[in-house]
Description:
- The protein is α+β, with helices and mostly antiparallel strands.
- The protein has one domain.
- It contains four helices and four strands.
- About 15% of the residues are buried.
- This is General stress protein 17M-like domain-containing protein.
Amino acid sequence: MADQTTSPPLAASVLELQGVFPSETALRDAVARLSLAGFDRAELSVPSGVAGMDAAPPQTEVDQRQARTLGTSMAASSGAMVGAGLAAAAGIAVAPIAAAAVVGGLAAGAIAGAAASGAKSAEDASEQQRAAAGQLILTVRLRDRAQQGEVERAFKEAGATRWDAVERRAD
């Protein structure tokens, strides 16, 4: 006979605090402050209704740097393999061709890195436009009303331009 477990009853409503931030840096500062205050990342979100926020998964600067490194490494490796393959097929001495392939691969990697930097600049411009339009929003789910003051303080210290409490009913 299977042991039946019961789950806690669903809440009739959920209380959230939504803050609007002037920059991504301010929004990240608020997330850091809330994390230090004991809020779980699962309680923090960016509403899906905000234009452009669903276009790409959230990325940190470390994620972006790793993606650029991966792209550069792949381009360099591909160039080296193509060069070595051509040299082997032609029956030519591999050392000079391999060196040329590595140089070509590094050049391709540099071009890929420059393209990634350009994409980052475009992303930064988009973030600035959303901030100017008041669209950088962070939502914090509150477990109880006592947390509201703590979240408001974190929003204020991080530079939020405004915040509002929102109660969502289950019905």
